[in-house]
Predict the 3D structure of the following.
Amino acid sequence: MFKIKAADGTNNLSGRKIAAIRKTKKLSQRRLAAKMQLMGFDVDHYFIRRVENGERFVTDIDLVIFSRALDVPITDMLSAEDAEL
């Protein structure tokens, strides 16, 4: 089955930006996962790691969750310049 991947072979375009935003806000992966859990989402730090490393496909729902947890617009996590497919 054909799977869409980024030019660098990762499964998402937003992972590196999510990691950068998280680090700017001085949050560990565990701390971000805990914040998301308090918001009612069933995630752990492995979920965060897999997204940031590009191992996991990211849905629009995931982007909304990250946007709320990191208190940034979704557009900060994804831009057209990144879409070198």
Notes: The chain has a mean pLDDT of 90.
